[in-house]
Each structure stands twice: as C-alpha cells, then as structure tokens.
Amino acid sequence: MNTDIVSLIKDKKIEILFQLVISPNEDYAAGIEALSRGISKDGEYIPASTIFKEAKKHGLLDELEKLLIYKALKKFSEIVNRQKSLLLFINISEYMYEFCMETDYISTIADEFKVPYSNIVFDINPTNEESIISAIKFAKYFRKRKFYICLDNIGSGFLNLDKILYISPDIIKINIFNLRNVSNDNYRKNLLKFIKYISENLGILLVAMGVETVEDVVETIDNNIQFMQGFYVSKPLSVEEIHLDLLIKDFHSMILSHYTEKEVEIENSRIINTKIINFTKEFASVLGGSKFDKINLKTSEIFLKYNFIENIWILNKDGYQVNDTIINYDKFNVKSSPIFNVYNIGSDFSSKEIFTMLESSFLDIWVTKPYKSLLTNNICIGSSTYVELGDSNYILCLNINYNTLINYLYK
Hints:
Mean pLDDT: 84
Structural class: alpha/beta
CATH architecture of the largest domain: Alpha-Beta Barrel
Number of domains: 2
Helix content: 25-40%
CATH topology of the largest domain: TIM Barrel
Low-confidence stretches: none
Distance between the termini: 69 Å
C-alpha cells in the first residue's frame, strides 16, 4: 500500500463516512459522527490511524485536520437540508484548539456550505492540564457562537472529573468499557454514578460509544444512557447510504425484545393507563375553545396543577406540528432543547404512533408504550387526543413523566 501523505492531502484523497448516534428508546437519531479513511494511489483504503501517523511524521497534521473538517461539512451539507435537526459530530484534536479560535476556520467553512452552527458538535478530548486549559477557552468561544461541545471518550485515561467540571459540556461520550461489569469495579462504578448525577442535574446528554454487541446495548439501556454509537448500531456509511428512517427501524428491530421490568410493569398497568386517559381528557377540556395566542397561558396553569407533564405540543389533521413544544421548565431542567429531540413548528408526526394510532382507530385518546424521555432520561408515556382550538380541530399531545405521575397519584 502506497501512503504518500503529501499527495493524499494535495489531491484531497480522503473519504468521509458517517456513523449514527442513535437512541435505543425512541425512533430518533441525534446525529452522525464524521469518520475518515484515505485512498491510496492503488485504490486501496487507508485507515485513519495510518493517515494521522504519516501526517504527524511529515508535520502535516494541521493540513490534514483542516481537510477533514472541510470535507465533513461539505458532505454533511447534503444531508442537513432534509434532516434539519441532525447533529454533525466532528473530532477536533487538541493541537487545533488555538488555530480554530484564531482563524475561525470552522465557522467560515460552515458558512460556505450553509450548515447552521447549532447543527455542529465538537468532539474534544484534552489529555493533560495544558490542553484542558485550551479546551476550556475553546468551549467558551464556540458555545457563544451556538456550537455544541462534546467531551469524547470519558472514562478512558485521566482527569475525567476535571474535564467535566471545568469544560461543562453539552454532551458526554462514555467509553462502553465503563458500562461493562461495572459492579465489579468501584472506580468505574463511582465515576459512572457521578457522571449520571451531573448529567441529570445540568441537562448534559450522555452517549455510550464503542457499542459492538447486543450485551453492550443492554448495558446502555440498563444504565439509562440516552444515546449509543458503535459498529453494532451502524457501520460507517457514505452520504448516499444514510436513510435515517430505515436505519432506525432496522436497529430497533434488533433490540425490540429488551424491556426493563419497570417498562413491562407499566405496560400491564390498567390503573395507570386509566388515570392517563382521564388526565388527557381534562387537559383537552381546559385547552378546548382557546385561541392559539392563549395556549401558553393555559398550559402554564396545567403545569402548575399537574407537575408530571414534561411538555405539550399540537398537531394538525395531517400530523404536522403547529406550535413550538411547550416545556415544563419549572419542573424539568433542560439545558439545550434541540439536542433533546424537542420538536418545533413543522415537525412531521404523520408516521409516528402518537398520531397514526389515534387517526386509524375508533378511540378518541391514544396512550403510547413507555419510553425514555430525552428531556429527563426518565420513563415517560405519551398520550394524544382531539381538541378544538378556535374554529378548527387539532390533536393535543402530552409527554407524561411516569415517576412524577406516581408521586402525584400516591402522595
């Protein structure tokens, strides 16, 4: 294999592939991570590790990284137009922090390809005290510009707690090693406990990285990690291979059989379902007849009275959202709602259970199966029913936090 790194960079013989970051609990992909491989003069693929090794040897790491960023954003621009909420995860090496701040190279390329900053996540992994200081500046600089910051590969290496506390990321990627047989290792057990505590209280999203087996999927679900990434979830894909609905459906068909005891218990609970149906009817009657400009006020009254409601949104008869999701901020802490799959005006629910089952049945209320909420990382149940607003009929949708509902019912 001929690895001429100078020609590789000059001729831009780098191929960008993408790997899914997906929720095991909802039909939702948070984003895709950009991966790279080279193409030799012989037409053979060159692993990323080899490319970086050669680039370092020839003092071309900066040029290589700039090329990867350029090509990743160019390729992503072909996807983001049809998947507007999708996030692009880009790895930024620690030696690039200062360059990125001084030159605004990434912002310039993003502007060139019309990729919104809020769709870009920087994967960073500072490895020593000096690079942590640079990473803190980097995170502050780009967060002000609406980019997201992800701490990569937490649990591998040192200074894990320092990174989290000082950088205050939007997302943390946990190495899957730290979820395997965690009960046998006090350090990993307590590290995971701390990470989960911090994430729940500060609204940080968690991703399990390196998921390679069904056992890894089970560990991720059982540890209440919102998202996962790895070769079991999806192989690296070209832009042409990314059909999110099909990929998500295929993935969920593989893990369909895995439910926690709590989820089974909820599904079999007629009492809870009856309560949810009654509450949904009551909410619809409170909102019924209201004009759209009064919905927020009415919803605030509902949130005060019923603190187990995470959020509320309205659909039209075709299954499209007609208002921005109204979130119960007083009860549930949300740091970065776009990351947590909070839908806004125009979101398409026409193929989702909360709409299709109501429309295709003789029922006037539908209650979904339990799932993990991305807002709170707790088990939730959705419900939907018809409501009249102004002079038109719509569909009211609710997310109900199960644990808070139980506390409300039995307090």
